[in-house]
Amino acid sequence: MKRSAPSNPPAVAPSRLRPDAAHARLALREARAMLEPLALWAIRNGVAYPAFAELLKAVFVQAARAELGRAGAAVTQSALSLLSGVHRKDVRTLAAGEAPRRAQPRPSVPSQVYTHWLSDRRWRDRRGRPRALPRTGESGSFEALCRTVSNDVHPRAVLDELLRLGQVALDDDLVIPLVESFVPAEDIEQLTAIFAANAADHLAAAVSNLTGHAPPFLEQSVYADGLRDESVAALHAEARAAWDRSFEAVVRKARERVEHDRKSDGRQRVRFGVYFYSEAAPTDDAATTDDAAAAPAARRGRPKRKSAT
User: Fold this and answer.
1) Cβ-Cβ contacts under 8 Å for 245 (sequence gap 6 or more)
2) What's the pLDDT score for residue 42?
3) Is 52 among the domain residues?
4) Which tens digit of pLDDT belongs to each residue from 179-202?
């Protein structure tokens, strides 16, 4: 007798991979490398393992909820427990006190103003640097710059915030930019939110590339080893210069597309970023057999292009 299809089919993610023991071992092995800097950050902020482990329950349940939703399956406590591995009692507790998911942080108006100042030719001098601006005036002023970004926040409030963050200085009636990017050095809460959003989207792009059917996201890197300190410094300077060029081009295109889509019902968001990191590589004596197996391309002295696609 032919059985009818279940009304609530099991959740199967739209994925290149099918979960099995080999994939689980691979994911756990590589997850350690990603979690080590996260654990270091947590420890430096006073977060110990028990609190982090408790948080992971909620994270796994939320991930299972999203996966069930993508598969069009019923989101029940049993399904959440089965998919996440979190005990049903904990799933029930989490569901009862579940907080709404935190919205993606949007750049503040001062951040948008400063980015506009750095990237738009109208506000830069002949050498491409953001120029000092008179505080008020119909055009070519800091007030006019603010108005190009938002009419909802008064330019004086934007100026006060940039002064508080040490991004600008006042010389009589002239507003002088002090840094080459918007990084609120004194606001640890905003810095932490930026860090979390950047890291989460970077990981999300790589996970999508590894497991999804959609066209791959840009997720590339260049790796080199066997370097001296001065070579690392030179490469860091080159990377910053490359970012400056990319920043200008992408911000300009983003403004065009935002303006183009302003009256549409578009709901997509994007993030484009870049990173640079260096540290002393482990010595050959320190490398374990597992490390060698995990990195078969670890030859010295030749730059390598890497991606998760």
Assistant:
1) none
2) 87
3) yes
4) 766 655 556 777 788 888 899 999
Indicate the Cα dihedral angle 175, 176, 182, 184, nearest 10°.
-80
The segments of the chain whose pLDDT lies below 70 read 1-18, 97-106, 180-187, 213, 283-302, 304, 307-309
**Distance between CA atoms of residues 153 and 112, nearest Å:** 12
Please indicate, yes or no, whether residues 219 and 286 belong to a single structural domain of this protein. yes
* Pairing label, strands 168-171, 133-134: unpaired
Distance of CA 246 to the CA centre of its chain: 17
Does 226 lie in the same domain as 116?
Answer: no
Nearest to 88 by CA among 57, 63, 66: 57
Whole-model pTM? Answer: 0.62
Query: DSSP character for 130?
Result: B
Q: Which residues pair with 306 in a beta bridge?
A: 221
How many whole angstroms from its chain centre is CA 177? 26
Q: How is residue 306 annotated by DSSP?
A: E
Residue 85 belongs to what domain range? 21-96
* Residue 13 resides in a domain: no
Query: 230 with 267, same domain?
Result: yes
pLDDT in tens, 264-278: 989 999 999 999 999
